[in-house]
Amino acid sequence: MLLNDVYSSNNAPGNKYLKMFMENKPITLKQACLAKCAECMNGFIDGKKDCEMNGICPLYSFMPYRKKEKNKKELKKIITDEQIEKMKEGKRKKQSK
């Protein structure tokens, strides 16, 4: 990717940092990850989309447009009456000491 291409690209996260890198300006580790995404995705010229490189690219977790995983239903533990009684007994024993 040429510097002129970067300057004419959109304002997607990473493009700014890629410009800074190409101008030999210091950038942080996070900014470097976003800049690499912008470089790999050609400055997001075709739109801000997920690269779908999950499991392939080690920087995918930093990708600004990755698809969010669907929330998994949290399993709730059901406490039985018997377990509640045992907890109360344990608490009473601890308080009586």
Task: Outline the structure in words.
By secondary structure, the chain is an all-alpha fold. Helices cover 43% and strands 0% of the residues. The chain has four helices and no strands. Helix 2 packs across helix 3. The mean pLDDT is 78.
Short synopsis of the structure:
This protein has 97 residues and is an all-alpha fold. Helices cover 43% and strands 0% of the residues.
Name the features.
mainly alpha, 97 residues, elongated
Question: What about the largest sheet?
Answer: none
Q: How many helices?
A: 4
Cα shape: elongated
Whole-number radius of gyration? 25 Å
Uncertain segments of ≥5 residues (pLDDT<50)?
Answer: none
Write the layout of secondary structure elements.
Blueprint: H1 3-8, H2 15-22, H3 29-40, H4 81-96
Helix pairs in contact: 2-3
